[in-house]
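hey can u check if this looks right to u? its 643 residues, i copy pasted from the old doc so theres a chance i mangled smth
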Amino acid sequence: MWSPGTWMWPAALCCLIVGTLTHTAGGFNVCMSGSSTSCEDCLLIHPSCAWCAQEDFGKGRTLTSRCDFSHNLQRRGCQARYIEKPTSSLSVLQNMPLSSKGSGSTQYDVVQIAPQQISLSLRPGDQTFFDLQVRQVEDYPVDLYYLMDLSLSMKDDLDTIRNLGTKLAHEMGKLTSNFRLGFGSFVDKNMSPFSYTAPKYQENPCNGYKLFPNCVPTFGFRHILSLTDEVDRFNEEVQKQMVSRNRDAPEGGFDAILQAAVCKEEIGWRKEAYHLLVFATDDVPHLALDGRLGGLVEPHDGRCHLSNNSEYSASTRMDYPSLGLLGEKLAENNIFLIFAVTKRLYVIYKNFTALIPGTTVEILDQDSKNVIQLIIAAYNNIRSKVELTVWDHPEDISLSFTATCQDGKPLPGLKKCADLKIGDTVSFNVSVEARSCPPRGADHSFTIKPVGFKDRLEVTVDYQCDCGCSQTAQSNSSICSSIGTYNCGTCLCEPGYLGAHCECQEGEASSMYFSACREAEGKQICSGRGECSCNQCLCYESEFGKIYGSYCECDNFSCARHKGVLCSGHGECHCGECKCHAGYVGDNCNCSTETSSCASDDGQMCSGRGSCVCGRCQCSEPGAFGDTCEKCPTCPDACGTKR
């Protein structure tokens, strides 16, 4: 569903455009607010503006604007077939129905967003709308990669998860019939100051540590088990693992997260599955720029760097990844990141979730006993939300979203729904508006996709910035004296020529042409309110009235006003001066010559105590007042009049 619409541009825009103005029934006419010289310029003023390409339109002394509302153009004599007014439109290119189930024979044809592909044709400023629907289908395949901190402080956690695979597969089997599990581990960069680098610690970083004297050499990230549905293999690999030791408190976990996200083939992420990356740790991570402490100045390149023995080979060559890079790669590969951290770290990692879309955080017990419940809770939390993201958003296009979730109430400004059940369908209304026209030939498109989904809506965009009449432009047209291009009703003259039909030549005579359009030497051409065309002024139209005169020096609106009314409503404005109607005088015609209202009951004018000015008594006798100066308690004859 969609419907085109328009936004009224801010009034401030109109103040930036100098040119032809007119009155409409609604007031200010934005289309005539600029002296548009071409059809394309007219289309950019406002989406409701149209251009008249009729050759004989507006001939006369006044410079008539070809840019106006279409009904005004027709009223002024432009035939409908010559009116150019393109509008925005939408075409749905692919719209497969939403699926209801994720596994089984239809696994590779699952659709969770509709439509899948649309094409927009946008006129700048003209708002266009479309709807899209998203559904979390039932029984969707799940790939879960368990990424564990194997620093020394996690020894008891390692003991707890040695049989995690079987138990987790049993619980996840209640949510999906297609579940796979993988495993990887991390410690930190094996270099100073992050790890112990003395020769005696190379093979055994725990050398001399009484509480736990033996451990494996420090490593950055190690991929141990690719995603598999053989959960017993998970148990076997976990039971082989031993902890290691690093020097400082923070770990190199973000190095490991990025490798697990981008090494898709090595990890075994399936395209048709939810990707869950569980990150279990009991300490804070190193971030970008921390690597400089060890002399690592090369930023992370965001690529996969796994060696033949499945270890991160660039650990001691590149810096730690930034949060921005991490979020980008997780989103690119549709991965939901689950931070499983101890209680004291909850707030820190909760802050990370605000910066990395599609992440959640859960509290992990000190020995990881609650890890299964944690994963199930995080999975249910992920499946209860749908949040849209926009990829490759063109700068000249504005988007706004309105979400309609399960309660059916539109929520303007939101592109997220929560508290959903698996199988629920939510919809989003999207408004699209092009703010300007891009360079010719530019190809624009963008993508809307729910966080963590493989499904997406591809949107291609072209722009309605050209007029149809421009396709039939005639070079060296006889209409333009054979020295100009006739395009959309106007002539574009060759250099050195001017005039409505290119009939005048610039050069030695140009100063003569322009001087004939000046009222006096030093004055503006056509008083700054018109154009000089071949020795005569063509005056602009105005919103406020008519501009006229040999030099456009006169108008019928620049006269004195009284209480905001031109010539007080009792006269006509002519060339800056009020010409008053009979019975009125004054600069603004607000002075009535009628004296009947000044006559007192005794027939005298203002009771003989004042004079009648503009139809009202102005009392001159001290102490006199009243409409006709009839009241005067202190006047010498006050008692005489009462005798």
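The first strand starts at residue 5 and ends at 6.
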